[in-house]
């Protein structure tokens, strides 16, 4: 294109660079992430339920040289579920997630990995229910609903990352599940967002591109695309 259509190539490159600069800017990325995460803010008092449901995507398999299962940057949801259990908010924890990483040579599902973490920090195995077939959020909801119906469970606390919660709660409610959102793993806090323009220098420096902002922008954009696609498929 540079040789055959230099003007078109120049416009395309310019648009690509502009999009890259905007999406790696903390203001743009922060606003997009906030628009998702702040839809469901933590409740002043978490109500009791009959089960805590934790969605997968929070672990890294026990592949060498790791000494065991690790938590990734979304691992807060596993720890938060343990905290809710210890606060006696529900008597059981349902872990939902299969193994979607085809590069892993370990057959353990995400639910098994989360169970390994929970039992290692003192959650009794008898309080853990594993659902290891789900490969996406829609399947999480469908498969968890079957478990709830078989056990006569009517009300759950749904635990996932704050950015993932808007899509998740819509899917679970579409399945007729009485799900109370219990989000965690917030990327944007009140103080951090207010501090973006706390001084002229801060406002100027926050205009600079950063790879972390690009990652946050990509994650938020993925959620909006997911919501759009799920609506097209009738899952929401």
UniProtKB/TrEMBL annotation:
InterPro entries hit by this protein: Cell_Envelope_Assoc (IPR051599), DUF218 (IPR003848), Rossmann-like_a/b/a_fold (IPR014729)
Domain of life: Bacteria
Domain DUF218, residue spans: 50-226
GO annotation terms (biological process): Gram-negative-bacterium-type cell wall biogenesis; peptidoglycan metabolic process
GO CC terms of this entry: plasma membrane
Protein name: DUF218 domain-containing protein
Organism of provenance: Chlorogloeopsis fritschii PCC 6912
Taxonomic placement: Bacteria, Bacillati, Cyanobacteriota, Cyanophyceae, Nostocales
């Amino acid at each position: 294109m540079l040789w055959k259509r230099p003007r078109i190539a120049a416009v395309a490159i310019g648009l690509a660079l502009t999009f890259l600069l905007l999406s790696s800017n903390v203001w743009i990325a922060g606003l997009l992430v906030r628009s998702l995460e702040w839809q469901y803010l933590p409740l002043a008092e978490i109500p009791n339920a009959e089960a805590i449901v934790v969605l997968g995507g929070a672990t890294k398999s026990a592949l060498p040289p790791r000494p065991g299962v690790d938590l990734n940057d979304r691992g807060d949801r596993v720890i938060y579920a343990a905290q809710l259990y210890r606060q006696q908010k529900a008597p059981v924890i349902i872990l939902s997630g299969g193994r979607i990483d085809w590069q892993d040579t370990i057959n353990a599902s995400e639910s098994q990995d989360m169970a390994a973490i929970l039992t290692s920090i003192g959650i009794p195995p008898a309080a853990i229910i594993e659902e290891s077939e789900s490969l996406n959020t829609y399947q999480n909801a469908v498969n968890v609903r079957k478990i709830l119906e078989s056990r006569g469970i009517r009300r759950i606390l749904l635990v996932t990352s704050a950015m993932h919660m808007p899509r998740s709660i819509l899917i679970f409610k579409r399945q007729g599940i009485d799900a109370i959102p219990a989000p965690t793993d917030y990327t944007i806090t009140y103080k951090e967002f207010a501090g973006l323009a706390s001084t002229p220098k801060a406002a100027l420096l926050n205009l600079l591109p950063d790879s972390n902002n690009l990652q946050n922008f990509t994650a938020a954009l993925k959620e909006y695309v997911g919501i759009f696609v799920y609506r097209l498929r009738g899952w929401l």
